[in-house]
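The protein record filed below.
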Amino acid sequence: MSFVHGIAAGVAFFLTLAPLISRADDLPSWNDGATKQAIVDFVARVSSEGGDHFVDPAERVAVFDNDGTLWGEQPMYVQLAFVLDRIKSLAPQHPDWKDAEPFKSVLAGDISGLASSGERGLMQLVGATHAGMTSDEFAKIASDWITTAKHPKTGKLYTSMVYQPMLELISYLKANGFEVFIVSGGGIEFMRPWVEQVYGIPPQNVVGSSIKSKYEVNDGKPEIVRLPEIDFVDDGSGKPIGVYTHIGRRPIAAFGNSDGDFQMLEWATSSGGSSFAMIVHHDDADREFAYDRESNFGRLDKGLTEGPKHGWTIVSMKTDWKQIYPE
């Protein structure tokens, strides 16, 4: 072989390796192994034009749960922490709360008492903290809170405790023609003010639980006023309904961490075409938290048992992730 031919062959060989090198570099916080390879293989299949499993970019929809999938949910959901803080800040305006449940338990820091109030008590708290104001007023309240609120264990801002591997995965999917949505049991109006800055996902790509609202014109100014009534709960079987209603396409990729995400993953992988589902298993007590079947928040029982039978990928935070949070 001549020198020129040798150089040409070397360049050609390098070019065949370049896409693999690039793909690996796109997910630097993921350890090499079956989980990372499953992600890369799926994306390659659906984005390789001319291939048997190619999916048109318009149909490359990926949905992500938020709590426990993109950021932490222990020792309680972030939005619940927001509710509790709001109750404490509003308490001086409501002296009767000190003797009325569930407000009494919140003000006393009695979590067991709060839990005993059940769903009805939680709805009272949501009504008191999320309603009786315009949509713009609530967006500012939520945005102001999330910029300063800190995790009770680490003392870090909640927004700094998002999962670095999942941020990389979102970027990786978007770079390969996917449109990415958040589909969360959390409040849609609570998330929309800050998700673009934190995740790079625009507010119109958020699906979540919501309360009822109405349109009013006050002093000549049109406003959306929030009402103390639940409109839609985007959890469990509500998640595929939320996706169908808000997005209008069945996802081909779905990511969650709890049994509340099961139906969303089940629906996304039942079309008969190319699809991918992944469950984040919190099994790293040293770097984050370890919990699954018995947890009050983010319980993962059915998904842990049934997920592998469906061909879903189970992510071990302990072994699959080089790092948890952004550095």
User: Anything to note?
Assistant: The chain has a mean pLDDT of 92. The longest strand covers residues 206-218. Strands lie at 61-64, 179-187, 206-218, 221-232, 253-256, 276-281, 313-316.
